[in-house]
Known about the structure:
Elements: E1 2-11, E2 14-19, E3 25-28, H1 31-45, E4 51-59, E5 62-69, E6 77-78, E7 86-87, H2 93-114
Antiparallel strand pairs: 1-2, 1-5, 2-3, 4-5, 6-7
Amino acid sequence: MGVFTFVCRNSGDEWTGKSISSDLEASAGSTFDLQRKLVQAAYSADSSGGIQSSFSLVTPTSGVFQVIIGGASGGAFIGGGGGAAVAAPAGGAAPAAEAEKKEEKKEEEKEESDDDMGFSLFD
């Protein structure tokens, strides 16, 4: 698994991205094109699996781009904006969904039990 973090800067009409841990770098006319080039550069350095990426602007002329290669497939990113995102295990979302369903059922049961006040409309 490889994690590549790039510092991205805009100078005039060109965006550049440089890795903080290796010699990988790229430049392009837009952030979209820069992200594509940086993913290709990271994948050429480590092609061990699937690719996940996240881009976050820090200022209008700078940003952080992270590429994770070979992480847990089917996982979800957890993080604010993705600058320092962490991959969750593949089954991480299912237990949370089940817990929410159980809470909803408990709330529904409470609503139903409030109706029983010991007498009927027809008494």
